[in-house]
Amino acid sequence: MPSNKSAIHCPGPVNRRSFMQIGALSMGALAGAGVPTNLARLLAAQAAAPTTDKDFSVILLWAGGGPSHLETFDMKPDAPVEYRGQFKPIKTNVPGIEITELLPNLAKMADKFSIVRSLFHNRNEHSGGTARLLSGYASVASDPFQSEFPTIGSVVAKHLEDQVRDLPLYVGNSVFYGGGPGYLGPAHVPFMFNGDPASPSFKVGNLSLTPEAATQLHKRQQLLNGFDTLRREIDRTQTMSTLDKFNQRALEMLTSTKTREAFDLSKEPDSVRNAYGRTTGGQSLLLARRLVESGVRFVQLQAHFPVDKKSGLVGATNWDDHSVNANIFEAYKDRMPQFDIVVPAFLNDLDARGLDRNVLFIFCGEFGRTPKISNKAPYGPGRDHWCRAMSIFLAGGGMKMGQVIGATNSRGEDPAERVMNSNCLLSTIYKRFGIDTTKSYPDKTGRPTQILTDGSPIEELL
């Protein structure tokens, strides 16, 4: 059941700037002081994972705060008025699949996506819900700032680290409130990029190094290597030689043409950039496509679709539509037309490039919203946190598209058909990566802990 606290003001997920100020590893932190020492240690800590499917990647578009299933992909037009909301469902190009009237472009291409309507978990607070959904474990703390267990991007980075040398495996534009590497440690946080990809001056830290600056970086590294000669001579454990290898990999990542070009949106034709929309949300998703096409394996993005001030207090990356934060219907009138430009352009782009076979796109948040609408000051209609039901939007990944899996009851309160713990989503993704979820890692107390203890792959997708 929803927490009794859901009716009070809820600030929602921490924004990217605040999180990074607290300590997320940005590019500047990794490459500080001229030599990428921290990045080298991060790489050195990722030393012995098995190889898996080298073609599969994930782009997770995260609606932090929790998107409403009843305003998007699980409409309930026959429910009482206090449940069904203002919007009507429309038919799609796949018979039997209906989605919100706010997404007419997406409705024309339902054969390219699937919707899972019957997932649930048991945590109703933002950070706890994020940790539960993305790690597969309920955190001990009630409101963990970072997950106590590794979330999926960190697990993927741990397992696939030996497959890419001159690109980060795991990239994000924001650390999820309640996400994190858990006991896998800071070696498995996402490579963070700053700035707005829609800006003409967008660059990513030292990835924009000039050839002269790259030469100087190598010279500084050579100088430090000289200072370390004596330590290397007496190093009996070969720790220094191992670190040398990863220092070199760090330099390759920071100065490689491949890395710089992956982040260089100017390489894209204007026709493609315009199709995505010259917005932060559109250009961020285009950048994600460039990254996975270059070899990045997991990209996490905040779903950046701004709302007008008249719609409420919610920010561009916050979908936390309580009555005290927003008028949920006005907010969706602002957000979804943007979504309906960006996501169809992205799906068409994947299809045209043949990337739909190996790039899985996921849109979701930490939970759904309460089926019953609240009407409180100052904004009126809103919905609160609801972990008992949610909709997951998926496309590509070589999976079976053009279907709806599962169903909720007549009011959207609980799964009624094909009931699935949210771990089933994680299990599906791990299976596609070729990752054995029974594999264990020691937690912070040294106790072996499996990647997942339950949840079966969603066979309808595979």
Principal-axes geometry comes out as: globular
Report the end-to-end length measured between terminal Cα atoms: 32 Å
Rg estimate, integer Å: 22 Å
Count of discrete domains: 1
Largest sheet: 9 strands, mixed
The pLDDT mean sits at: 84
Oligomer: single chain
The computed structural class is: alpha/beta
Number of helices: 15
Second-tier CATH architecture? 3-Layer(aba) Sandwich
Percent range for β-strand residues: 5-15%
CATH class: Alpha Beta
Beta strands, count: 19
CATH fold label: Alkaline Phosphatase, subunit A
The percentage helix is: 25-40%
- Extract low-pLDDT stretches: 1-9, 14-37, 45-52, 230-246
How would you summarize what this structure contains?
With 462 residues, the chain is an alpha/beta fold.
List keywords for this structure.
two-stranded antiparallel sheet, alpha/beta, single chain, Alkaline Phosphatase, subunit A, globular, disordered N terminus, nine-stranded mixed sheet, 462 residues, 33% helix, 19 strands
Strand and helix layout:
Blueprint: H1 16-22, H2 27-30, H3 37-44, E1 57-62, H4 81-84, E2 89-91, E3 98-100, H5 104-107, E4 113-120, H6 126-135, H7 152-160, E5 170-172, E6 191-192, H8 211-227, H9 229-234, H10 239-255, H11 257-262, H12 270-276, H13 280-294, E7 298-302, H14 328-353, E8 359-364, E9 368-369, E10 374-376, E11 380-382, E12 385-386, E13 390-396, E14 403-405, E15 407-408, E16 415-417, E17 420-421, H15 423-433, E18 440-442, E19 448-450
Parallel strand pairs: 1-7, 1-8, 4-14, 4-17, 5-6, 5-7
Antiparallel strand pairs: 2-3, 4-13, 8-13, 9-12, 10-11, 15-16, 18-19
Helix pairs in contact: 3-10, 8-10, 13-14
